[in-house]
Write a structure and sequence with these properties.
The chain has 10 helices and 10 strands. By secondary structure, the protein is mainly alpha-helical. Strand 4 and strand 5 form a beta hairpin. Helix 3 packs across helix 5.
Amino acid sequence: MMSHLIQPMRRQLLRLAGALLCSPVLARAADGGLPHAVHQRILATLDAPLPKVLNVHHLALIRRFNIGWSPVESGAPMLNPAYPLGKDDTLALAMQAIASKDAALAAQRLMEAALLLPHFVQMADLKPGSYANGKAPFTLTARHLTLLRQQSWMTLEMLGMGAEDYLAEGYWPTPSVDGKRPYGDFTNYPVEMAQALGLPVRQQADGSLAITPKLQAQLKALHRQTMPALQVFVREAGLRRNTV
C-alpha cells in the first residue's frame, strides 16, 4: 500500500523539479518522444557496469552539463533532468557534442557521462579563482572545492524512481546530490560542512554536535553556492586521471 503512495509522490516531486528548473511551459522535457532505439539504449546503459575510463565523448558532454538545484529537503545540486545539456533538444546537443549522427550512441554516452559525474568531481581539479558563469562571474574558493568532493550523490534507486519512471515523465535519468543529507550522515548538514572545512564544532550536553547560529547561516549560504561551483567545475576543471 505504501509503495503505491510513494511512487505518485515521487513523480510529483520530479514534476516540481522540472517546473523549478525550467519555465512553466517547458516543465516537461522536450525529449519526451525519444525513438524506441534510443529509449532502449538508455535502459541498457543504465543496467550495464559503469565505464572504468572517462573518454573524450564523456568529457565533451560533461563540459556541456546544465547543473540545477534539487528541491528535495534542504536542496542540493543536480544534473538538470529536463535539460541536462541546456534548453534545447538534448539528443541533438549530445550528437553535436560527440560529433556523431548516431542518436543511440549519443544517448548512451550522455547516460554514461551522467553516471560518471560524481566520479569526475573526484578525478578532476580546478584552481580557486574567478570564472565566467552566466551574467556574472563566480568566485570559486578552496572551500567550494572541499564541499563538492564531500557531497553525497544519490542513485536513481535511492531517489525511489527507476529510469522508466523518468523517461515516462519526459525526463532524462540524471543523478542528484542528496538534499536531505548532502554531506554524508547528518540532516543537520551545516555541522558536517563545518567538520569538512575544519571549522569549530562543539559537543552539547546530550552528545549532539552543534555550531554557532552565525556559522550555521554562513554555511547554509555556502551550501547554496555549491550549485554554481559545480557548474563552473564541470566546464573548467582539468582531469588528473581518466580512470574511475
